[in-house]
Write a structure and sequence with these properties.
Elements lengths: L2 E6 L7 H7 L6 H20 L3 E8 L5 E8 L2 H12 L3 H32 L21
Antiparallel strand pairs: 1-2, 2-3
Helix pairs in contact: 1-2, 1-4, 2-4, 3-4
Length: about 140
């Protein structure tokens, strides 16, 4: 790996509707109550996130290159989520986690134009996207 880049997130904001869907809510009275709770958690989420991405181009056999991208919101998000669960505030923990997940998705969308530009500068394209744990085993993260 001779080309590694770190990119800091700038405008990463939680999406409450997405967070509620990720948490399994459907429109109705429970949705409305959870939406209010999400609104009260947004400032904590925004203060907690330190969005960063590491991009690494890896040389493969036959002269091919592959790009690996790792996104993080930073350790404060994990610690805050753990605090909610430790304190017995499971619903807030789940909603906080879902709001953070929506931030990861927003961060990915923020990064896509930069990733395309970087790939274009290197004369490369993007053939497909794989997500650890979904498209490939979690063991690839190591």
């Amino acid at each position: 790996m001779n080309d590694i880049r770190i990119i800091q997130g700038r405008y990463v904001r939680p999406d409450t509707a997405m967070a509620l869907r990720l948490a399994g809510y459907k429109p109705g009275p429970a949705w409305d109550k959870a939406m209010d709770m999400c609104q009260s958690l947004i400032q904590t989420v925004r203060r907690s996130i330190q969005a960063k991405a590491a991009l690494a181009f890896v040389q493969l056999p036959a002269g091919k290159e592959r790009l690996y991208v790792i996104l993080t919101l930073g350790p404060v998000v994990s610690r805050q989520e753990q605090l909610y669960f430790r304190d017995g505030r499971e619903v807030e923990g789940i909603l906080f986690s879902s709001l953070a997940d929506s931030c990861i998705f927003a961060f990915e969308q923020e990064l896509l134009p930069q990733i395309r530009r970087i790939c274009q500068e290197k004369g490369l394209g993007i053939a497909q996207r794989h997500e650890a744990g979904i498209d490939v085993p979690l063991s690839v993260q190591s």
